[in-house]
């Protein structure tokens, strides 16, 4: 029966105007309700007094302009997604019980009204260009913060957020990052396409486990080679040539280096724990440096000029290999690999890529 469920998903509905049906659903007092991308009557939402999670991103509330007032009646609400809503943040002041809030693409100009949401541990404000984030310094319980594509130039007072574990700053061009060195509890940091060159302020972040710095051209990776806890690292399209210092990251299990044309991958031989490696479009000819990566399970080397796959023969854990658009000449020999006995080179058809390495037998 429907009242035995705790999760309700209505993602597939495009337009649903049967208010009686919505009332019936809410009256079962769901703990989690998803109404994303739907049209609903917000006067019915207030019936869900026990709701804990409410997702309303991209939802059209019709016949009322008082959405925030209705939501304030949810005394047990802990998580809410209001992305793509143009809403006055001041109407959320009573929701001090919230722990997770997403307001991406909401045309916000300031985060000032959020200072009253002192219980927040996760906050996403992506794609609010020009937003003033100064007030976020008061949300000291934050552990996850996402501010991608906000046209930020400085990280005003974020150094107060000492409990942050995850910080997403992608697509903030030429951002000044000196405040980062104080966020020593960070375990995950993403700053793709931020126009970064000098990365010295990342150096003190010894607890980082995941780091993504893709599309930052000309960065100097030598300044943080002592981040020994890193397990996932992304340097895609950074115009890297020498990566000799990457040998210091001996705990890496996942590494992405695609679109670094002419990169010297010799140092990869020291990353014995790698199980996922991406080297697409790097103008590679030889894979000799990969012979020692005995833990490797996935390898992506599309769009290179690799001739021989023989260096991979001893990588017995390798089960996913993508090699389209290379110059492989030993594909038949490679069929002796225990996981690729059905290996065949594919062909380009109508400008579409096809898998050159297929399934395991």
Report on this model:
The protein is mostly beta strands. The chain folds into 3 domains: 1-66; 82-230, Alpha-Beta Horseshoe (Leucine-rich repeat, LRR (right-handed beta-alpha superhelix)), CATH 3.80.10; 250-361, Ribonuclease Inhibitor (Leucine-rich repeat, LRR (right-handed beta-alpha superhelix)). The chain is 5% helix and 14% strand. It has helices at residues 19-27, 67-71, 331-334; strands at residues 7-9, 32-34, 39-41, 53-55, 60-62, 79-81, 100-102, 122-124, 144-146, 166-168, 188-190, 210-212, 232-234, 254-256, 276-278, 298-300, 320-322. Strands 1-2-4-6-7-8-9-10-11-12-13-14-15-16-17 form a 15-stranded parallel sheet, with no helix packed on it. A two-stranded parallel ribbon has the order 3-5. Residues 1-30, 38-43 and 347-361 have low confidence and may be disordered. Keywords: Leucine-rich repeat, Repeat. This is Leucine-rich repeat domain-containing protein.
Strand content: 5-15%
Strand order, main sheet: write it out. Answer: 1-2-4-6-7-8-9-10-11-12-13-14-15-16-17
CATH fold field value of the largest domain: Leucine-rich repeat, LRR (right-handed beta-alpha superhelix)
Which outline best applies?
A: elongated
Name the descriptors.
single chain, 361 residues, mainly beta, Leucine-rich repeat, LRR (right-handed beta-alpha superhelix), 3 domains, 3 helices, elongated, disordered N terminus
What is this structure's SSE topology?
Layout: E1 7-9, H1 19-27, E2 32-34, E3 39-41, E4 53-55, E5 60-62, H2 67-71, E6 79-81, E7 100-102, E8 122-124, E9 144-146, E10 166-168, E11 188-190, E12 210-212, E13 232-234, E14 254-256, E15 276-278, E16 298-300, E17 320-322, H3 331-334
Parallel strand pairs: 1-2, 2-4, 3-5, 4-6, 6-7, 7-8, 8-9, 9-10, 10-11, 11-12, 12-13, 13-14, 14-15, 15-16, 16-17
């Amino acid at each position: 029966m429907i009242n035995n469920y705790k999760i309700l998903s209505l993602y597939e509905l495009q337009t649903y105007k049967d208010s009686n049906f919505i009332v019936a659903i809410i009256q079962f007092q769901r703990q989690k309700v998803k109404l994303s991308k739907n049209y609903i009557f917000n006067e019915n939402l207030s019936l869900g007094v026990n709701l804990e999670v409410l997702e309303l991103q991209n939802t059209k509330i019709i016949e009322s302009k008082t959405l925030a007032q209705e939501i304030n009646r949810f005394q047990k609400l802990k998580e809410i997604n209001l992305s793509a809503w143009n809403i006055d943040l001041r109407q959320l002041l009573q929701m001090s019980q919230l722990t997770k809030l997403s307001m991406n693409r909401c045309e916000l100009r300031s985060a000032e009204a959020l200072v009253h949401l002192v219980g927040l541990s996760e906050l996403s404000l992506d794609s609010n260009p020009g937003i003033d984030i100064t007030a976020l310094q008061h949300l000291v319980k934050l552990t996850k913060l996402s501010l991608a594509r906000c046209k930020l130039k400085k990280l005003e007072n974020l150094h107060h957020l000492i409990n942050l574990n995850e910080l997403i700053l992608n697509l903030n061009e030429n951002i000044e990052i000196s405040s980062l060195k104080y966020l020593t509890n960070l375990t995950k940091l993403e700053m793709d396409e931020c126009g970064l060159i000098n990365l010295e302020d990342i150096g003190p972040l010894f607890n980082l486990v995941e780091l993504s710095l893709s599309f930052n051209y000309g960065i100097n990776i030598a300044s943080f080679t002592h981040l020994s806890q890193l397990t996932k690292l992304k340097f895609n399209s950074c115009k890297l040539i020498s990566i000799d210092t990457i040998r210091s990251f001996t705990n890496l299990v996942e590494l992405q280096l695609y679109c670094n044309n002419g990169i010297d991958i010799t140092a990869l031989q020291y990353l014995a724990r790698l199980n996922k490696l991406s080297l697409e479009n790097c103008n590679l000819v030889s894979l000799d440096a990969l012979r020692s990566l005995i833990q490797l399970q996935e390898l992506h080397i599309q769009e290179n000029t690799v001739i021989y796959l023989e260096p991979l023969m001893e990588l017995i854990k390798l089960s996913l290999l993508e090699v389209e658009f290379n110059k492989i000449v030993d594909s038949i020999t490679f069929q002796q690999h225990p996981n690729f006995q059905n290996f065949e080179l594919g062909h380009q058809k109508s400008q579409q890529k096809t898998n050159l390495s297929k399934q395991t037998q």
